[in-house]
Amino acid sequence: MKKSILSKNNRVAAFFLVLISLLLSFPMNGFAEEGTLNFYVTPESPESQVEGSGSYFDLNVTPGATETLTLTLQNAIDEPVKVAITPHTAYTNVNGVVEYGKDAEEVDPSLVHSLDELIEVPETIELAGNETRTVSLTLKMPEESFEGFLAGGLRLSEVKEEASEEEASEEEGLAIKNEFSYVVGVIVSNSRNTVQPDLALLDVFPDQLNYRNVISATLQNFTSTFVNRLEVEASVKRKGENEVLYEASKEQMQMAPNSHFNFPISLNGDRFRSGDYVLEMTARSGDEEWNWTEEFTIKADEARSLNRDDVTIDSSPNWLLIGSAVFIVCLLAVIAYLILQNKKNKTSLGKKE
Q1: What is the pLDDT of residues 32-66, one digit of tens each?
Q2: How far apart are CA 163 and CA 227, in angstroms?
Q3: Are residues 140 and 272 in the same domain?
Q4: Is residue 346's pLDDT more than 60?
Q5: Are 50 and 72 members of one domain?
Q6: Distance, CA of 205 to CA of 217 (rounded, Å)
Q7: Domain-located, residue 223
Q8: What percent of the chain has pLDDT over 90?
Q9: What mean pLDDT do residues 147-160 have?
Q10: What whole-number distance in Å separates Cα of residue 263 and Cα of residue 199?
């Protein structure tokens, strides 16, 4: 059909050559240096220290009591060093690891006492060259007794002098800036009575991790004890179907007391598609096991927004598809034109006869 049309009209062939040349002109789809701190820190165990935990503070203190936390700081260089100490409350990060030296973006609603609010720290400490100094911090326990643990840490960082404008301009454009610090863990309790851990599934929603599409399941430890050796298995299906679309599992995780984290289930480069889904999840810790089945919905606008931001999804125009569509439309237009011309020619010949 195509050859017969071209043979009738050389102008059509020329048109196609120009079109193809235009289509071919479109694109077809397609370390930071490590450093060290200039000081050392050693925690000094008070009388309330639990035996066998000398590298951090593990304290059993009565309600309402005040405890002194003592740190020995040693400047390892000849120049003065400034050290800042900040207290933090422990939380669980997205990898299922307890963070002692940072603050959670969102405090868990089950947390009654934040450890960072119970510790008074001194202002910035300046150590002379090679100086060793003892620093005291005050821990004020809550007046009311509590079960389980309060967990957190002390972050000790070297305070750098502000760079001059000349130095700042020389360093402009560096994308990575590492900050090194010591973190001394702090765990306190009123008693060492056993608290049974318990978990809850708070939410399931479309999300991203490192600019990649994931389905996040928010796991909460609403008890005041650690959840150790945590194992999680999760799978996602479309509602009403049996095929497993996405799954994830991880072992040897740990959750801080009264904390939560988003367990990610990767889409492995797939796009989000709107619709209703079902999450099936199992978590284990020691002899304890929890099971959940939770329905959730991915909305069309959420899917579009997340797909646009996923760095593994090519959102640029598909020029091959666009070119093919244009080619077909143009071809149909030419065919229609030739058919009309043919009819006109026949009509003209009929009238002449």
Answers
A1: 223 589 999 999 999 999 987 778 999 999 999 99
A2: 44
A3: no
A4: yes
A5: yes
A6: 7
A7: yes
A8: 71
A9: 96
A10: 13
